[in-house]
Amino acid sequence: MEFRLLPDALECRESERWVKIGGHIKVLARTRAADQKHSYGVLLEWKNLDGVLIQGLILIKVLQGDNYRQVRDMLIDSGYQLEPSPQAWQRLQRYLLNELQRAEPAICVERTGWHSEGFVSLGWSAPRHNAKLYLLRKSQDLELSSSGTLEQWQEEIGKLCIANPMLIFCCGVALSAPLLCSSGVENVIFHLNGDSGSGKTTALKVATSVLGDESLMRTWLSTANGLTAAAALHHDIPLLLDEISQAKAEDVDTAVYSISNGRPKLRANEAGQLAIGEPWRTVALSTGEVTLAEHMVQLGKEPLAGQLSRVVEIPVTGQFGLFDALHGFKRPDLLADELQRRCQRYYGTLFPAWANRLVSYEETELARKVSDLLYYRSELMREDAEIILGYGVSPQVMRVIRRLALVQVALIMANNFNLLPWLEHHSVNAVDHCFSLWLKNRGHGLDTEDYRLFCMLKAAIQAWGPHIRPLESRLNSGVGYCRTHQGELQWLVKTDVLKQALNLRPQYRSQMQRLVKHDWLQFNELERLTLKIVQEKKSARYFAIWPERIRKGLAELEVD
């Protein structure tokens, strides 16, 4: 059967005449999975009744299978003009299959983000080596649309970010997600918390404009499963979440776990087996009037240390709410309103330009460049923190530093690609500023577990002081005794008293190792970390602590 494609119609030869089948439709490419073993399909482009060109990817198994009506219905629903004759659809099928044989090959992938052939999203791709790369469309896929040019975004939005470090930081967060793969940095949620009207949502819209339109913004007002599903769709693409206070505390708890771990919590399927979903990589930017810790209070529990290092909470403390510079606007709300208007006109041009620059590197080359720059920036941030604190930062703080440094790396690289309208030192200072805010808000550079334990220890020592009795006096004490040992004051605290005061677990050794590390504890029983002594021919067991060492050490660590 012979076909011919016209600007506004598809025809086939029937006897000696040409008969119209439908409107303009053509095969752009023959798609398949990268392994050339499955997901064969056809990329189509057709014109609807309004003359709008539409592209869509259709699997061959659907086109030729029992569910072929889905394809026909989709085309008709989109406005494609299919002739009403009974043979029209059959002839269109034949045309598509014929064209499929002649079409150039392309690669079809099933999720956004990095693949060996390049970076892909719904709507555009950034291939390596001129490969043709397409995303298999699913009903819930997010589409990164665009409006205006990159130059317009730089002029109309980017320049208003200058001297506003938190706006620059938010742009960096939006750019950092594609670097997770190359850096080895884990998923993270950056959470901006501040009063209503401070400009948090405006900052989120600026970050969104890097990617696409405001439809990409999601709210915390969803179930934990809904938030997890959203995160899975944002593989290598930032996730933008507005107003955490709208969500239920239990949903936040579960969602934070899923987003930061890159997979949902394990659940059993219908067969009773563990249902393990495909992992994802993402960087989330969140806003809210409350912190994670404040939200978790509703559940009657404190955030886990792992949550606090994976949710980096940054207080909004600019000169004018979130802003430090108003750029000629009389009030911060006027600047916020104008930024929001511009974000509705200019969006979605920076991120694809960024992806196209990144694919100019081979995978190993990009990983090496990102890793080297990440190490350098992390070390500088660590050194600055240790100068401020006066002691070495903990592993938990170092993990936060690496996550913030990744944002810095993204901004610096984008500066080097001439994608941003501000200078490199603006990018560096913006992230340093946010790190300073985070560290000041945290109040210390210790691991969370250490800090909590040391706070309880400080309070306990203050409370125990009046009740400590000299060991030699034979006066009974409900707390413990003191003695001079090796020329230094030592307290022998009853084990049950200390366990209760420090809220020690039944298996407490790992908790007490924090005292051992600082040389605040003497012991002769390794497993118990207790000191066993003989008193009046009877053995007794205590936790032997050095109170003056502890007081001095806690003061140096600035434990409140």
In short:
With 560 residues, the protein is α/β, with parallel strands linked by helices. It has 20 helices and 24 strands.
Structure notes:
- By secondary structure, the chain is an alpha/beta fold.
- The protein has 3 domains: 3-135, no CATH class; 150-440, Rossmann fold; 448-556, no CATH class.
- The chain is built from 20 helices and 24 strands.
- α5 crosses α15 (395-416) and α7 (200-211) runs parallel beside α12.
Bin the strand percentage: 15-25%
What is the global morphology?
Answer: elongated
Mean pLDDT over the full residue set: 91
Going by CATH, the architecture of the largest domain would be 3-Layer(aba) Sandwich
Distance between the termini: 85 Å
Low-confidence stretches: 268-276
Count up the domains: 3
Q: Provide the CATH topology of the largest domain.
A: Rossmann fold
CATH top level of the largest domain is Alpha Beta
Secondary structure: helix percent: 40-55%
Largest sheet, in brief, is: 6 strands, mixed
Write the layout of secondary structure elements.
Layout: E1 3-6, E2 9-14, E3 17-22, E4 25-32, E5 41-47, E6 53-59, H1 60-63, H2 68-77, H3 88-102, E7 105-109, E8 113-115, E9 118-120, E10 125-127, E11 133-135, H4 150-161, H5 165-176, H6 180-183, E12 188-193, H7 200-211, E13 218-219, H8 224-233, E14 239-242, H9 249-261, E15 267-268, E16 274-275, E17 283-288, H10 292-296, H11 305-310, E18 311-315, H12 332-345, H13 350-358, H14 363-389, H15 395-416, H16 424-442, H17 448-464, E19 468-470, E20 480-485, E21 488-494, H18 495-501, H19 509-517, E22 521-522, E23 531-535, E24 538-545, H20 547-556
Parallel strand pairs: 4-7, 7-11, 12-17, 12-18, 13-14, 14-17, 19-20
Antiparallel strand pairs: 1-2, 2-3, 4-5, 5-6, 8-9, 9-10, 15-16, 20-21, 21-24, 22-24, 23-24
